[in-house]
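Report of the visiting student (M.T.), summer placement. My assignment was to run the structure pipeline on a short list of targets and document each run. The first record concerns Rab-GTPase-TBC domain-containing protein.
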Amino acid sequence: MKDSWTGKLQLSEAYLAFESTDGKGCSLVIPLYTIRRVERVNNKSHNLVLSVLNWHQMKSIFQFNATKSVCEKFCNTLRSNLKSQLRHMKSLRPFLSTCFSEVLLIDPKKELTVGGLGLTFGFPGDAKMQVLIHLLRDRSKTKLWIDYMYNNGRNLTLIKSPYFYKLVRIGLPNKLRGEMWELCSGAAYLRFVNNGLYDKLHKEYAGKVTPSTEEIEKDLNRSLPEYPAYQSSEGIDRLRRVLTAYSWKDPELGYCQAMNIVASAILIYMSEEQAFWILSILCDRMLPGYYSTSMYGAILDQLIFEHYVQNKMSILYDHFQKVDIQLSVACLPWFLSLYINSMPLILAFRVLDCFFMEGPKVLFQIGLAILKINGNELMEVSDDGAFINTLKKYFSSLDEPINPDNSNPKSQELTKFDQLMIVAFKEFSSVTTQSVMELRNTFQLKVVHNIESFTKRDIIRNLQDTSKFSKEDISVIYDKYYTAQFYGKQKSVRNDSRMDLTTFYRFLGNITNWAKLEDDELSNSENGEPRDSQGRRIVGYKIINKLFDYFDKSSSGGITLQDVVTGLGEIKFGDMVSRIKLFFDLHDGDQDGYLLKEEMLQLSESLLFIFRFRQDDGHLSSVSNFIKNAFEYSDPSTEPKALQEVVENVIDAKRKSQEDGERRMSFPSFRMVILADAYLENFFDNDFSSTFQLVEPVEERQKGLGREIFNVLMSDGMKLANRFGKRLNSRRKSQSPSQAERKKSQSSISTSDNSKSSSTSIKSDTSESISLIEDESIESFVSIESSEVPRNASSSSISTDEEDDGLLQEVDRLLSEYSINESGNY
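After the run finished, the structure tokens were exported:
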């Protein structure tokens, strides 16, 4: 058998991947740690022909029509990357022992030792009256998969041809389902490279109680209670371990309702570790934001779903608008539970088969098909209750035949679920992954704004004390608080919602000019002290630290929005004496009611820092007088003309205080010194409080975004940057930073059995090393040749009865019903 594909071949640090671009729908991903040998084949018509032997003894031949330099660079990069992946090969055999496909091709009758709850408690559908039919149908599907994997590889070396997509759409065999979900979603690769992480999390956090674990305990008994495993301690314990492990892996997300429904469903077909990594893929990549406190991802997809309904079923959409029916009332649970809570389980898992293979677009296609099929009935409903009841009735009848009395045998066997799948993939094939991603980008700002408005109202409403601030002022404080939190998140060491000192610098600089410190001033620090562009120490900046400590009433090292509102309220709405007392207390380090000589000097530096942007010289004279009066020191010059003279006064005062011994000032004396100077009196009476401007600029108002979404995006971005930053740094150390040329080339792949090859080696005519960009792709022509390999005798024992012939015919009928064209689409 020989098939040919044209497409792009991509080489990264750990994978060799191909995707056809000729519309025939072929793809393969070969982890470099599964390659046993790569040899260069002599060929006069091509500059490069590579023979690749993988772990399962399948040989692939790649032919390239490209310039010699491109071919040599590709070879050298492949050789280098293969060497770096050798360390993973020792983990390959234990990993493959957890894959059912390894057992299936050797002895299909052998039982799995590792797997899901279904191995012990049975799979959905097994307990029904048609149990024999379900079992025989499962055996027939398994036989088809054995044939496919003999010719196209298995698990980590599987080639996905157009026939692969057909087999997935007619439903996966029960014992093979978990492995295929892992493979299609990419979770298998994560599980391999993170071997042991799941067990490590349980050991590291054993016995730890968090808000997430408490919420998990509440939901355990509400997770698929109809399935027998979750009526026993074994099933509940497995679910608890998976959910708690994920909450420890991602403490920012932790746990959210609906995660328990999805996790309990996939545990039927997968081990705990497999389910853990599938859950990670769902939350981090496939459905970001679905399982968060605001569910912003699910809300975003609901807007997209309504957009599709409006464009593709405008009459039905207009009816919903006319009678004020909210689509999200019924449809949001579909998306959150991946239809598990809506359909009979055995059918919901058929949807999951397609979902893990093709991505989130399947959720939209199925939802649109449901509305289209029930369009006539839905046009008669007039409220949300009738809308939900109509759909519930439809879901309960999905396994019923559409036309039981039809004379055509094929039509008699066609169920409502078969009809749903056909309508979803044929009539809504225009709903693609690309279109979903584009609409997510289009609608995300609208969703963010709506969530931000709701979150903002909720948080402001729950403030215990607004300190006489107006609603508008509180709104501005909220915006500036969370804007500073977002921009300071990447440098923050805190994992909670409290603001740390570094972020407080940015926040305070946004509401008062005297606290503004440029980023280069903060970064150009020595021993934690900000420096200006000339490297000089910025005098008095610690007034910001003192205000932070004052706002932090709980002494937790972080301040809440309530702390900020309370602290600012005391400054804005206090009287002159209270503000003088505030300054006194800020600098009274030991809180003994007296300012020592060093504390008085620090206070003078604080005043100089606050006054540093003023154009007049009055503040210089006042601070100088304050120092003199505070130390009972007189100077004939009563009006210093420059800041230098004030600094000299401070230095002289320090020297003189050391000579005179300990001096201290009580609050009454301090107040008297302040009130004796008109400039300082006016500052504490009006100027200081008026420096805090609670006005939001227009540009800041326009870019307001939901804090949770910002936190998630920043967290994900920082994780990604750190991961790839480490990769790039390591590559730069070992390779020169040259970019590989992009050239059109041709390659062909042939697959055959070769049981003699067992070593790993690279043969190349040149040793020149290069650096290849990770997303580099080469236009390629790929063909795959497969020859029949010797079958194990036991494989024929899977089914030889006459009844299987009829079931195979039924499977063939389903394959024809789910027919796909040459492009791999329905």
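The first strand starts at residue 2 and ends at 11. The chain has four domains: 7-89, 100-285, 296-445, 462-637+662-705. I thank the supervising group for their guidance throughout the placement.
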